[in-house]
Amino acid sequence: MNALGLFVKQPVPGRVKTRLAADLGAERAAELYAAFVTDLADRYRTTADRRILGFTPNNTPAREYFDHLAQTDFTLWPQPDVSLGERMQAFFASQFDAGAERVVLIGSDSPSLPVAIVEDAFEQLAEADVVLGPATDGGYYLIGQRRLVGQSQASRPIFDDIDWSESRVLMQTVERVAGCNASLSLLTPWYDIDTQDDLALLRGHLAAIKQAGMPLGLPHVTRALKVED
Q1: Most buried among 5, 111, 179, 191, by the most CB within 10 A?
Q2: Does the pLDDT value for residue 1 go beyond 90?
């Protein structure tokens, strides 16, 4: 069984996209992030055998917000109040414990990420222990693992001692994978949206897709950016 996780935050002004908020204002940044999350959820409603929204914060307003977004297509998994690495480790462990053979986790900072890349990640996990989608900022937009046979999931500590939000996240993660003697497969690089320059890239990418006559598939994002779908 394949399980796809999407880590999301309730789009509360001042608590999401803080680097964008510094330039655009907290309300505008939260509006854009809400569009990211909505379009991503809509795009992946039928991907994998099981789909999970790993949400934060773990409170009633956030749960109600994401329950409405999930409909019947996703289950909800509240992220524990620990470090990012511990949250990711807990997510993978929970999905393997629930019977998944291959688990892929993506964030909500790459609204244009194609379904084909995520599907490719699951396919690559047929041969590799770990799959990574390198991000252009030095991190990664996707990480996947296949179940360890006859071992504890804790024996693959690939989230330990990572300098999250730094440009060396990808390098450090590759080192952790190598240290576990796990095989690694790579996806095509993609981009996250964290800054105004990233937002300009997204707007240009959407304009290029539109001009090329290709479907945008991002109705909420294109409206928020005033790019016609």
Answers
A1: 5
A2: yes
